[in-house]
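User: Fold this one for me? It's Capsule polysaccharide biosynthesis protein.
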Amino acid sequence: MASSVAYLAKLSVIVPAIGVATAASAAYAGPAVLKRLTGDVQAWLIRFLTGPGRNSRLLLVLFMASNWKSVPLAWTTRIFGAMIRHTLWPRKPLPPPALFHYVLTRSRTSLLEMDYNLHKSNSTYFADLDASRTHLIMYLLASGVSLVGQNAKTKIVVSPETGTPMPGSLSVGLGAVFCSFRKEIAPFQPYEMWTRVLAWDRKWLYVVTHFVVKGKVRPASFDGDGRPAREWTAADDANLQKHVIATALSKYVFKLARFTVHPTYLLETSGLLPERPGEGWRGGGPEAVGTMADLDEGEAVSENDEWTWKNVERERRRGMLLASHFATLDDARELFDGGKHGALGIFGPG
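Assistant: Here's what I get for Capsule polysaccharide biosynthesis protein.
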């Protein structure tokens, strides 16, 4: 996800404008065009399936179908497909705790993702993470992306110096990714990516993703599907860790031109943050994550209590215990000395 988000933020304006013209054109020319295309496609399929060299063509189609994730433009299709889907078909309102709930994305390992050990190459996990994170961000924050993306009109984010709306298009940048591998994934093995919001600070939105063996873990419920939650048992807890294949942490930054947008602007405009008293979610001095003294850490909260800003802040702080260690890895760049004491050589291919 990058500056392309700026264009998707305008879809809510563009799509209605072209929808009427498209529908009218389709109604007028559709039947004739469809009849012609149907005949052409049918003739082409007959030649493809029965003509000379059909075995080679069918084998090529089978190979490409089983390795679709690695064909040209497959990554682009996965990312933009997720963006467009959640922009054109936005979610319904979610219950307050859903901010920290998982989005599940399913996939399968293809032959072209294998390394010489005959399991999924570690490098290919990051393409899967791109797809899973995009589903999460666009599902949760599509309305916020749209509103903040039109900031000149909505005036949600204002300059701290002048009080005027910040100009520019909204972009989403990936700041860093860390991935810990526990088990291998075999050829054609199906798996799931469980991705959720971990925490945020004044600059970054932190996201955690677990690669999990498909079908071995089942959530107690899905938000908004109307079905009652199933009972969560001790056996569910006992079996969780053995099915985790890998875990990744990522962090996103939101920008209007060169201005860094506090993540809570998008969370609030997406209806995911309860109102916080006092200075709100962006108060509390330089850290701008709320006044730290306004939450009694020793206060017990029952699972049956109403979900309030205190629940959100407790979960955010719990996530930051892990995210803060991840953030310190940024200082690793200071280790680079440019080969001041020498280098081994230059090698290729790279």
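One thing worth pointing out: The chain is about 40% helix and 15% strand.
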